[in-house]
Amino acid sequence: MEVIVRNTSSDAASLTAAIVAKALSARPNLVLGLATGRTMEAVYNLLAELYENEGLDFSLATAFNLDEYVGLSPDDPRSYRFYMDKYLFSRVNIDVRNTHLPNGMAEDLEEECRRYEQEIEVRNGIDFQLLGVGKTGHIGFNEPLSAMRSRTRVKALTPETIVQNAALVGGPGRMPHRAITMGVGTILECKRCVLLATGIDKADVIARAVEGPITSMISATALQLHPKCTVIVDEAAASGLEHQDYYRWVFENEPEWQVYQ
Ligand code: GLP
């Protein structure tokens, strides 16, 4: 794992977008794993700008999102399909047929989870996975006690996550209580991943995820097992890290993120 501390949240988002853009330019048919949440909005804005101003080409790329709420249709503004269309897909030249999210409206949810795993497998897996982290330590919606080898499945959200994400859907009463999410095992199979976290609210979970023991109580700790993982944080999110000086020294003197490309 490499940890990169940037001064501000916008510096952290810029570096994240630059790394995605570099990976996509190097491999136009990249299979991208995508995340949602407030943190990613800045990254998608920057990617849309890179498409607009510098012709960053998404036409051959494929996207798989980490998760989708159960019971929401794609045109429901609370759904992650709606979010992705709004912040990224409608703003770049990705072929909408190559954009995938689990179907939270599927009649047979278990079958839908199997189908989603197969879709990923058919494309030889995810090349580049973008990740955020929830306050409970979830990646995707892998809430505490998610098995390290879990696959795409339905997961109940914790009360804390329901509160955390309620602001995005118009209040706790409008929050779904379940989601389909890629499993921790699914995520760990990606070839390379970048986790972005910004703001003081994430300081505690970042300290645990990066420097704490690996535990299914905090799914993000599983990333310590991934051979090509970069964690990008701003100063606020980095403030609980004990070994910040070391991370800064590596980034300034012997950066690894380019080697990971
Ligand atoms: C949701 C998503 C996660 C994301 C998290 C972070 O819960 N399922 O994939 O990492 O939001 O949200 P935010 O960026 O709003 O803090």
Tally of individual helices = 9
Order of helices and strands: EHEHEEHEHEEHEHEHEHH
Approximate shape: globular
- How is the CATH topology named? Rossmann fold
So what's the CATH class? Answer: Alpha Beta
Q: Could you tell me the radius of gyration in angstroms?
A: 17 Å
Average residue pLDDT: 97
Largest sheet: 7 strands, parallel
Distinct compounds present: 2-amino-2-deoxy-6-O-phosphono-alpha-D-glucopyranose
Number of strand segments = 10
**N- to C-terminal distance:** 14 Å
Query: Which percent range fits the helix content?
Result: 25-40%
Structural class: alpha/beta
Strands in their spatial order, largest beta sheet: 1-10-9-6-2-3-5
Overall domain count: 1
Low-confidence stretches: none
Percent range for β-strand residues: 15-25%
CATH architecture: 3-Layer(aba) Sandwich
